[in-house]
Write a structure and sequence with these properties.
Elements (H helix, E strand, L loop, with lengths): L5 H21 L1 H31 L10
Helix pairs in contact: 1-2
Length: 68
Amino acid sequence: MTFKTFPSFVGAIILSVIGILAYQWFGLVAVIIVGGIGLPAMLALTYYWADLETRKGRGWNSLKDKGF
């Protein structure tokens, strides 16, 4: 597992634990709500993390970041 996939892996584990606890405490409806909110949030944060790492590699305020 590379460093770039590690935050996504940790997010998936945390989301799984929250889903299990929600199911035990509140039932299936809570799992659907947790998945509906948590999965897109995890994917967005994973995309943000990858974009941040790419920008660090190119340097801040490069012309590519500004659309040129």
